[in-house]
Amino acid sequence: MYIEDTIAAVSTPRGEGGIAIIRISGSDSLRILDSLYRPSRNGGFDSHRFYYGSIIDPNTDVILDEIMSVYMKAPKTFTREDVVEIHCHGGTLVVQLILAAVLATGARLAQPGEFTKRAFLNGRVDLVQAEATIDIIRAKTAAAALLAQSHREGFLSARINEIRDDLRHILALLEAYLDFPDEDLGDADIALVNDLSCTALSKSSQLLDSYQEGRVLRDGVSVIIAGKPNAGKSSLLNMLLSEKRAIVTSVPGTTRDIIEEVVNIRGLPVTLLDTAGICVSDDPVEKEGIHRALVRIPTADLVIILLDGSRPFDQDDVLSFEAVGNTAHLTVINKSDLPSRLIIPESFSLEQTHFISTSTGEGIESLRDAIADLFLHAKLTDNRELAFLSDARHRDALQSVVGSLSRFNASFVDASSFELLTIDLRDALDALGQITGETTPDDILGLIFDRFCIGK
After folding, report:
1. Judgement on whether residues 174 and 257 belong to the same structural domain of the protein
2. How many domains does the chain have?
3. Helix (H) or strand (E) holding 225
4. In this structure, which of 2, 384, 415, 455 has its CB flanked by the most CB atoms within 10 Å?
5. Residue 247: exposed, middle, or buried by beta-carbon count in 10 A (0-12, 13-18, 19+)?
6. pLDDT tens-digit series, residues 88-109
7. Are residue 203 and residue 160 in the same domain, yes or no?
């Protein structure tokens, strides 16, 4: 529910900083600022201009801080309400004192995401654009930020609206016929309905097919490096990270626990996990490390099976392949700078085999390309008009749309009752509306905006 009161919150991160921003939104914003502000010179507030002055304690008239303030008059604001921002020093105490003064003067503390929720409820953004705001904040790579920014600018919404407009056109034609049943639906209108419904289904399916790429850009993937001791797993981790994160020695079994780091690989956020060497061991600490590796491997999006090309294939290598099982994997042969002694039995899948040297760096860039291409399928570009689907909620809704349109097309060919056909159309339109917010239930809206931080 939208309550027309005035809200306030700190919009900058917690902790000390050079500057902090306290945001106020609602009809009382300017009155609250007037009550607390002492200008450096006389005069009122012009909209969208910064003013220098001080904030005082309303109870004691003591100056709390010198600040810059800006008043932004509705509707040309993010929330389409009157908005005030107070830019003060970023000390934890002074920020809390100013916020307390704002709340004491008539505002209430904003709930998580409430500023963005008001922007949505007031028609400033649709739900896709609102959700993109949190994706921009949480983006781990430039490519993920680019995708989120394209959603915030409305490119995905535009694709959804194209489908919606086609379906509304079809619905209007069918309802016109239902209102005037004595008039037949002409051949031209039948052809138009068929064309529009097939186009809408094609567009919906294309968006749905983009989900895998969009999801991994947004959320990233996990890649586990597995193999027998001393194959070079920690060295590979360090090479991919471009830093010495894991300890590397000539002693087998150096890594006993899982080392986890995030790296940007060709725009793809990748969580790399270096694991204990898989082998038969009597050492209780090493056995625990191996157990942890075996538990984590099935949960990974990809496993790199690292083999030592300078040593013969042995039982520990067999254990590595068995541990990976059906999990997606790449076979990587390390130490390509040394004489090869590795012969891999034909019974092991080697569809994607890469040769590298963690000593010289040979093959590392090709391996990075292979990891990125496996998930992005070479579809990532610098085009800012990206419309990849990236949210599971959007995917579920598009699946409903595709299902409804598939039923509609099959029924339309069979000349089914137009009354029944309109049910499938309305179901598809309702699902599209859940993506952009027109038909999203209030409880789902609450869950979406609860993911935001306070102040956004």
Report:
1. no
2. 3
3. strand 221-227
4. 455
5. exposed
6. 999 999 999 999 999 999 999 9
7. yes
